[in-house]
């Protein structure tokens, strides 16, 4: 069954493969860039930056209210103060994988430890 467009959120996943010595600087740079995106683009919902234990991968997860909001923010990411392509070169990324996803189901744990299921549709 199709999910109504108005109820869908949009997620961007960007995975970096790097040399372990580059991980702390890349995480810091992505943190700064993600904060700028969140402050300057409407439709921002959440973000996380995750680092692998072996130091070789970093995952940047960004969630937006709509696909349009995410795509507009990414255009800003490409041409911002430290553009995205410069970020890749500076931190010597071996590979960068992009993924875009519509969120159809999510779970949340509330402050009172209750589990909330959000089925979109």
Automatic annotation (TrEMBL):
Residues 10-75 form the ABM domain. SUPFAM superfamilies: Dimeric alpha+beta barrel. Coiled coil: none annotated. The keyword tRNA processing does not apply. Transmembrane segments: none annotated. One of its GO terms (molecular function) is monooxygenase activity. It comes from the Bacteria. This is Antibiotic biosynthesis monooxygenase. It comes from Pseudomonas reinekei.
């Amino acid at each position: 069954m199709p999910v109504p467009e108005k109820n869908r959120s949009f997620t961007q996943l960007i995975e970096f493969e790097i040399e372990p010595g580059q991980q702390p600087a890349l995480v810091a740079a992505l943190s700064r860039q993600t904060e700028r995106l969140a402050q300057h683009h409407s439709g921002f919902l959440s973000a996380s930056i995750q680092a692998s234990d072996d130091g070789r991968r970093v995952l940047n997860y960004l969630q937006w209210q709509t696909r349009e909001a995410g795509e507009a923010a990414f255009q800003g990411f490409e041409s911002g103060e430290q553009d995205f392509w410069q970020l890749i070169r500076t931190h010597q990324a071996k590979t960068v994988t992009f993924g875009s996803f519509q969120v159809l189901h999510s779970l949340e744990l509330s402050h009172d430890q209750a589990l909330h299921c959000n089925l979109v549709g």
